[in-house]
Amino acid sequence: MSRVMSRQLSAQNYKIVIFLIFTFSNFLILSFAQEQEAPPALTLEQALSLSPNLDADVISARTDVAAAERDLQRVSSDPLALRLEKLEAEQTLASEQDSLEAALIANRLDVTDKFFAALEADETLANALKQQQIATATLEAQQIRFEAGAITQIDLSNAQNDAVEAERAVRDAQNTRNLAYSQLGSVVGQSVTALTPYEAEAPQLAALEQIQSESNTKNTQLKSLQRNVELARTQLEITDNAFSSRSQIDSAKDTLADAELTLSDYQSSLGLTIESSYNSVLAAQASYENALEAFRTSGDDLTAQKTRLDAGSISPIAYQQSELGHAQNQAALNTAKHQLFLAYIRLEQAVLGQAVTTQ
Length: 359
Known about the structure:
Layout: H1 2-37, H2 44-50, H3 56-76, H4 83-147, H5 153-188, H6 208-218, H7 220-239, H8 246-311, H9 316-352
């Protein structure tokens, strides 16, 4: 009898061991599969690399550049092509290249803006969840105090309202995050589930005079107007001869004069445009420095609150409030840093003569 029971127990133990091994194996397989399926966090550099290939304006501009290159090659290889035809083909190519550069920087601004918006949405959601946790704990404490007769019904109702508002804030933050991630995913052509924070330091701002000097050689609008002057001057040289009528010559002179006047007007306003974008960078720098100071101050306050918590002079909820305040200052600092980077890109747009997108 004892041998039969021993065999039954052995068989039962064997089944248990097999079941545990099978369950643990499935757990490992499932965990491995989840790790394999989870895409890595997207970096800003990766987003900027993916997006231009999906941007309709960039694709169109690249197509136009390729077409202009073919036209220039055709004209250059034609021994019967006129000097004006070749100049026009060269200027068309230069104009299309400028348009491509404009499309690329506009794409970079758009992608960077969407990436930063998604990062900020992450922080907003995290802080909303912290606030909800504090509101829930406060409500529980107030409920106990109310039952003990230590507070009034109004005090309890206020705590209940705070908890409801915190829950609503979490829902709103989640919706905002979902939208931000969706918009970012639409410009990079893939689903985005996590982001890598952007830790780069802002570049040093050059002197205004140096940037204005750079704009005189890089500004695409300026170069386009200069090409118009060159084309008009060439047209006048070709027209001003014994084979052209006086009206044709006068028309060519008027075209040149108009082109020169337009160029002069733009040169006069260019400095003010650059200065305006430059001042926007200075303002963003000041906002960042103020946010940095506030973050450092809240860090010192949090350290002091931790000492008080350890000494028992404040409650855990009060310390959690200090932690939340510090986290909110961190989020504000990151937002100010993001706005500074965007201001730099908009300054670059102004230098290149592109339409500057403002927030």
